[in-house]
Amino acid sequence: MIDDLDERGLLASTVVLAMASSGAHHSSTRIAGRDHYPSCWSLAIGGGGIQCGRVVGASDETGSNVISRATSMGDIFATIYKAFGIDWTKEYDTPIGRPIKIANSFDDGTAEPIRELL
């Protein structure tokens, strides 16, 4: 798909994003069933000015915990927004005046674009 978008001249204006959790826990409990790893997940992203073929961060040997370069979902959003020229620090107010970030990070901080991808 990436090659096809590139050949058609559409890759520069299209972001392709595929995401998944790192999968089901290797063990299960009789009551709770299978758990998933909520702290560690993988994605592939490219196009729209975002660099392909990069590895950012690492997990432990079981894929259950991040051991380097923790990245939030907001960082992914900030990366896409920056690639498209959108101010990722933008906030909107809810009807009751509560500010909502369009790209929030850990502890509700403002996310940052992933520098390795831009």
Distinctive features:
118 residues, alpha+beta, two-stranded antiparallel sheet, 2 helices, 8 strands, 30% strand
Short précis:
The protein is an alpha+beta fold and 118 residues long. The chain has helices at 2-7, 73-83; strands at residues 15-21, 24-29, 33-36, 41-47, 58-59, 66-68, 91-93, 99-101. The two termini are 21 Å apart.
Describe the structure.
With 118 residues, this protein is of the alpha+beta class. 14% of the residues lie in helices and 30% in strands. It contains two helices and eight strands, in the order H-E-E-E-E-E-E-H-E-E. The strands form four sheets. It has a two-stranded antiparallel ribbon. Strands 2-3 form a two-stranded antiparallel ribbon. Strand 7 and strand 8 form a beta hairpin.
List the helices and strands and how they pair.
Elements: H1 2-7, E1 15-21, E2 24-29, E3 33-36, E4 41-47, E5 58-59, E6 66-68, H2 73-83, E7 91-93, E8 99-101
Q: What percent of residues adopt helix (DSSP H or I)?
A: 10-25%
The number of helices is 2
- Mean pLDDT level: 86
Q: Would you identify the regions where 5 or more consecutive residues have pLDDT less than 50?
A: none
Distance between the termini: 21 Å
- N to C succession of SSEs: HEEEEEEHEE
| Strand line-up of the largest beta sheet | 1-4
Biggest sheet, open or closed, and with what strands and sense? 2 strands, antiparallel
Strand content: 25-35%
SS content category: alpha+beta
